[in-house]
Amino acid sequence: MPRRGKGEGSIFQRKDGRWAAFVTIGYGPDGKQRKRWVYGRTRREVAEALARLLPRAGYGLIQPTRLRLGEWLERWADERARSKGLRPSTVQNYRNYQQLLKPLAATPLTRLSPLAIRARFAELAELSPSTRRHLYQFLRAALRDAVRVGLLEANPMDAVDPPTGGTVRPPRAWNREQVSAFLAAAQGHRLYPMFYVMLTTGLRIGEAMALRWQDWQGEKLWIRHTLTKQRTLGPTKTLGSSAPIYLDLATQTILSEHRTRQAEERATAKRWLDHDLIFPSEVGTPLSYRNVMRTFQALTEQAKVPRIGLHGLRHTYTSMALQAGLSPKQVADRLRHKDPALTLRIYQHLQEEDRRQAALNLDTLLHLQKQRLT
């Protein structure tokens, strides 16, 4: 039998002439190794298949009976932050979740029971529904990966119900008439171009405030950063969020006119710190989210349209784009959603809200009918 190539791992040729290899990916409850096998017609074919499995083999070096939950969560969170390019705020949330689960941290991974997890979530009942839901999703995802790499036979979170309590606010958006009313009220305000761009592109507010002039290249607008709470440029929400989007001619004209006005503003300003931002403050520095929100709410009241959050502009774009006939995939690509199903879920929520508002009582219906007759 030919010898294995150096550094190729457990590769060998079978009696039938085929090549085979295996890699240890974990251990079962009985302590025996769990192996993943690959086969091929040539040594090279098997070596390449084995190389794809080796990143998972590192977990096989862990003794599941000795590995504790806290150790796994720390390792999993660090690896995920590196591989997914998570934002600092998300990494900090992961650390917070680990702190909330600290009473379970010393529990051996293989001994973690659904009852223990349920008891811990019961102790966290005073937390907001949103925090408990995110904590549930964090732990479920970490333990799901532990199953995938062979550290657990089953995910104990499968026997733990999602946290209840509180209501999830449905996405809110404007219709076409309300968008027109808002833009009419905002016309002439220095932040009008930013709100206009958000409505025609579906940009997140942090992405809009982080745009630089070098990011705009004619019909293309490159989304490279988001503005952090510290008012510095940080990475986008996900790796897929960093991408170019195309602009229509009207939006390009709005940006061109805005650049001219900004040059005039910079020339007459007593103090200007240039950061190359498309939408800076009155002195050139990054905008404050609080000030933008205050301006947005004032313009909303002036336009006499329903109050929505700044993220509601993204939902408004989603609704208008789908109603205009764009496919879910086209809208998802523009929003930089990885899965078009997420785009459709948002739209379905918006439709449900419209149907809910259509549930008028008899007095209201009769009043509307009377108005039409007169």
From TrEMBL:
Source organism phylogeny: Bacteria, Thermotogati, Deinococcota, Deinococci, Thermales
GO BP field: DNA integration; DNA recombination
Pfam families from the UniProt entry: Phage_integrase
InterPro entries: CB, DNA_brk_join_enz, Integrase-like_cat_sf, Integrase_catalytic, Integrase_recombinase_N, Tyrosine_recombinase_XerCD
Keywords: DNA recombination, DNA-binding
One MF annotation (Gene Ontology) recorded for this entry: DNA binding
Domain Core-binding (CB): 67-147
Organism: Meiothermus taiwanensis
The name this protein goes by in its record: Putative prophage phiRv2 integrase
Segments forming domain Tyr recombinase: 169-360
Cited PANTHER family: INTA PROTEIN, PHAGE INTEGRASE-RELATED
Keyword Cell wall biogenesis/degradation among UniProt keywords: no
